[in-house]
């Protein structure tokens, strides 16, 4: 498995992602978006950062990069794709997943540890966990509030596409445990297939034991299979 | 001296260009009714701190696009596609477009 960590102008979590994946024994390399996906690509990660300075809306510009056509077609053919933070915003903007991530309810940039409840354990990103497991992972975003129309939210629920919800230490998805005002406390969702996922929290920042918790490594293990 | 012929495609393009009109499409993009706007809320609170009384404040983005088109409806169609594909995110935004001939 060679994971292409796609770097846009303004991406800044690409090195962290490569380091975390390498630590897990996953072959990963940074790929500049203008160079297109290497032929040997068998997994794709859209890393965090501030691509194009968040102009217009976070992720809106990067979503127009030609490499995203390649990413979408790979995704349709079953290649695992994970969007983290700005990568999640790019994922929504480029229709890899439904919904949108917009300004936090606080109107502030928030950098803190949060708890997530695992809603699905039968996906490549979560089969290291059990449903209901509570994991602690950092967030660092100003535009992470998940928004979606009511009808489409109901569809997400009906299709069981919610992957993680913000919760308290005991796994309760309360308003207090919702850091950014996300609809349904949603922190991460699946695309139409289980191999495509986006989430606002940073699993690559919770993988290396030297820098704290390792609750996020199970998510990146999705690339190891 | 031999005659120089101008490619027909080029002549067609020039003719088409000459028959086009310059329009300005004004696109206003705002959050859908009911979608929380924390920046507008913060702005409203700041105005209140300055002593103003107001019952609500909504913010919107406005884009002015100069483009050439055969007629106003073609200009509007083009601006609509630009808006749907990039300027607005239909999941959270509504938009309005008005088109007028560009003032010289």
UniProtKB/TrEMBL annotation, chain A:
Residue runs in coiled coils: none
Keyword ATP-binding: yes
Record's keyword terms, sorted: ATP-binding, Cytoplasm, Glutamine amidotransferase, Hydrolase, Ligase, Nucleotide-binding, Purine biosynthesis
Gene3D superfamilies documented for this protein: 3.40.50.880
Catalytic activity: L-glutamine + H2O = L-glutamate + NH4(+); N(2)-formyl-N(1)-(5-phospho-beta-D-ribosyl)glycinamide + L-glutamine + ATP + H2O = 2-formamido-N(1)-(5-O-phospho-beta-D-ribosyl)acetamidine + L-glutamate + ADP + phosphate + H(+)
UniProt GO molecular function: ATP binding; glutaminase activity; phosphoribosylformylglycinamidine synthase activity
SUPFAM superfamilies: Class I glutamine amidotransferase-like
EC number: 6.3.5.3, 3.5.1.2
Gene Ontology CC annotation, any one: cytoplasm
InterPro entries, per the entry: Class_I_gatase-like, PRibForGlyAmidine_synth_PurQ
Coarse class of the protein's main subcellular location: cytoplasm
Locations listed in the record: Cytoplasm
Pfam families (UniProt xref): GATase_5 (PF13507)
Positions of the catalytic residues: 85 (nucleophile), 202, 204
Gene Ontology biological-process annotations: 'de novo' IMP biosynthetic process
Keyword Nucleotide-binding applies: yes
Functional pathway: Purine metabolism; IMP biosynthesis via de novo pathway; 5-amino-1-(5-phospho-D-ribosyl)imidazole from N(2)-formyl-N(1)-(5-phospho-D-ribosyl)glycinamide: step 1/2
NCBIfam families xref list: FGAM_synth_I, PRK03619.1
Function: Part of the phosphoribosylformylglycinamidine synthase complex involved in the purines biosynthetic pathway. Catalyzes the ATP-dependent conversion of formylglycinamide ribonucleotide (FGAR) and glutamine to yield formylglycinamidine ribonucleotide (FGAM) and glutamate. The FGAM synthase complex is composed of three subunits. PurQ produces an ammonia molecule by converting glutamine to glutamate. PurL transfers the ammonia molecule to FGAR to form FGAM in an ATP-dependent manner.
Quaternary data: Part of the FGAM synthase complex composed of 1 PurL, 1 PurQ and 2 PurS subunits.
Name the record gives this protein: Phosphoribosylformylglycinamidine synthase subunit PurQ
Origin species: Natronocalculus amylovorans
